[in-house]
């Protein structure tokens, strides 16, 4: 079966930056819904027409990958409004900022805690790979038709290429 705009594709990959530094490897296949929210549009477009066993080498500039880095999405917040167990790398749904937040952080972003200081916390709403051109070596491990339920959900829940809260609006740290 060839890959179409409404199918499920099992992929493995190696993700590198343009200097060749490996950023991620997926050795066991993970299924993604094409035509949904699981993959970047540039990756979906490149996969169309391919079949089980095909390999692709993609070079994606930031605008076709995780976007340009936007320094306006970096905010400082008082350390006191966050729980004691806050750690670097945790994410906070922008729609559920803690009470007392002073920043005007856009609610549609997910913010990563990048630094914790005694008085302040640095929150970054950019994707961790924002501003980085990437090289992606993909292998199509399987292709199947998507079910009506999968199409209706718009995702298989394996949105590696989307940085979004897994539980929107619940106010928890992930």
Helix-strand category: mainly beta
Instruction: Write down how many β-strands occur, each being a DSSP E stretch of 2 or more residues.
Output: 8
N- to C-terminal separation?
37 Å
- CATH class term of the largest domain: Alpha Beta
**CATH domain topology of the largest domain:** Chitinase A, domain 3
Mean pLDDT figure: 87
Uncertain segments: 163-174
Proportion of beta-strand residues: 35-45%
Radius of gyration from the alpha-carbon trace, in angstroms: 18 Å
Order of helices and strands: EEHEEEEEEH
CATH hierarchy: architecture of the largest domain: Roll
Number of helices: 2
Percentage of residues in helical conformation: under 10%
What features would you describe in this structure?
The chain has 174 residues and is mostly beta strands. The chain has 2 domains: 7-66 and 131-153, Chitinase A, domain 3; 71-124, Thrombin, subunit H (Beta Barrel). Helix content is 7%, strand content 35%. The chain is built from 2 helices and 8 strands. The protein has a 4-stranded antiparallel β-sheet with strand order 2-1-8-3, with helices on one face. A 4-stranded antiparallel β-sheet has the order 4-7-6-5, with no helix packed on it. Strand 6 and strand 7 form a beta hairpin. Residues 163-174 have low confidence and may be disordered.
Which properties best describe this structure?
Thrombin, subunit H; Chitinase A, domain 3; 174 residues; 4-stranded antiparallel sheet; 8 strands; 7% helix
